[in-house]
Amino acid sequence: MTEEFNYGDTYAPIYGEYAKAHDKIAEVDQTVTFLKRYCCGGSALELGIGDGRVAVPLSERGVRVHGIDNSRSMLELLAKRSDRIKAWQGDIAFFKTEKRYNLVYCVYFTFTLLITREEQIACLRSAMEALDHEGVVVIELYVPSSDPRVSGQESTIVRVADQDNTILSVGIHDPLKQNLVSTVLWFSGASIRRLPQRSRYVYHQELDTMAECAGLELSERWGDWKRGEFGEGSKRHISVYRRK
Hints:
Radius of gyration: 17 Å
Mean pLDDT: 87
Strand content: 35-45%
Number of strands: 11
Order of helices and strands: HHHEHEHEEHEEEEEHEE
Distance between the termini: 26 Å
CATH architecture of the largest domain: 3-Layer(aba) Sandwich
CATH superfamily of the largest domain: Vaccinia Virus protein VP39
Largest sheet: 7 strands, mixed
């Protein structure tokens, strides 16, 4: 994973508050319920485990959760939160593990932080190799905007707007690499935070193709963690892959 933007160290001090502003804390129970059904043998590996927002409640339901994150700051938050989980610092694109898991999962927008197609395919291949025979890979991704973009064009997107927070994303688009280099402006009360981001967006059809390159095939696709239908108006998808 690129070191140009150190997401973990930048976001670690405010990650809980940031996730809450995006309603990610509120949907944890739905996320864990969805994931647990694939842990028939009781084991899971999270890619980009962060502070354990999902991993800790999943472990509390009897699943042996391991995790990888490239940020020591995030792993320190995880260690303070729980001693149930074994996690190590590493690159989610290129990792090896002798253990085999029922489930390997990557949630929120973590997969898009791998900013090249090659890194994303490598991540899927590493995940596939970490599966047991009946295991699955679960990826949560947002559906890219259908608005036409021009190379180098600046865009401003309102991410959150409520009585407590206003979060804007101001970015520059590189369509050849499918990269967005952006700055998140977070207005909360009298405070203003400026947070850098860089990501490579992926359409669900491309994700399927990359998964095939990694030895996986699509098994299920849902529009949310409640297993709602994925359709034309969906803002994100939860995709489940199995070995080919």
